[in-house]
Amino acid sequence: MESHDEESPLVVGDSPTQKLMNHARDVHILSSAFLLIFLAYGAAQNLETTLNTEEDLGTISLGILYLSFTFFSMVASSVVRVLGSKNALVLGTTGYWLFIAANLMPTWYTMVPASLYMGFSASIIWVGQGTYLTSTARSHARDYDLHEGTVIGNFNGEFWGMFASHQFVGNLVSLALLRDGSGGGTSSNTTLLFIVFLCSMTLGTILMCFLHKRDSREKETPNSSLSLCSSVVSLSRSVIAPMFDVRMLLIIPLIAYSGLQQAFVWAEFTKDIVTPALGVSGVGGAMAVYGAFDAICSLAAGRLTSGLSSITFIVSGGAFVQFIVLLWLLLKYSLTSRVLGIVYPLIMAALWGIGDGVFNTQLSALLAILFKNDTEGAFAQLKVWQSASIAVVFFLSPYISLHAMLVLMIVALCVSFAGFLFLTLQVERSFSS
Predict the structure, then answer these.
(1) Nearest to residue 23, comparing CAs of 103, 100, 136?
(2) Which of 243, 295, 253 shows the shortest CA–CA distance to 422?
């Protein structure tokens, strides 16, 4: 019975009794596909700076990846408009698959090209994800006469909850396969780990193919010359136009901080906090805790999101939690060999996961609510500034101390949160006037 509900919208007709599409089905598929793809990539990224240490190959590869991500995010909205969001999602998976495959033989000749191409793939898969999920939420709200902000929050909560659980699942897999090896695990264990990751990614790509096509562009075959002209125009609009929007300018610092706090976990927390206390094999366990709390918080935050007021309250809570962790690391934390030496990194991972879950869900919901007329451009800006700040952390990591990085994070958090609060006051004032 359910399959008829899903297929009926594909039949064009004027019947007033036409059945509605099951939009929630596409959210389930999208969330599950991202879980399968990113449980592999996320765990591999967490291990990159500890497994590929020769000449800082792992750290520099990730820096190149996110620098490429930044550049291609500037043109990603145009690519997604031409391909359609579903096709962009499927094509975007190929870069992640190639990056994992390159880790089976990690050299400068395999990792650098794979990182460059993955930057392109990541840009279109994330702009495609934001566009597809927002389009699905709006269609669901319209078809079932529901409050749009609530539906956007619920759908983002489900997606980011499933997505965040990739850290839990993926890192448990890496913990199980590397625990018997000394240091970073034996070569055979590492090879087996990346083969398992490739299989998971392949399943995720196949699952992505079952998504419904969403926007009207995907159902049309435009004239190529007109498509080229419109692509050039949309490119300039998506890159330049948002920079003249005061709302986007006030959101950008928070977007940049959300990238900084993610890179801090991958580049600094695992290397300088977790590894000295728990060893390389313990990275998987700590990041599993991080992912579990990230997922739980994403689901809860998504359910609580209904509009700008709720977003303001939830973001304030997430910012406060991460501020406490940063102060703890800066002023109080020291490595100890007792039980607390094991417990403290796990507590920090849990608290940091809560903050990450907040920023992921609320930034997506905020952009979807404020930029209804240019969803692709808004999510392209999200990935431009996130990936740029992540690249900065990976390139700076080998050259600055943990103390300096913590000071940078605290300053960035305070500045970005102040800009966000000013934005909410401005938007609330414009609505009330």
Answers:
(1) 136
(2) 253
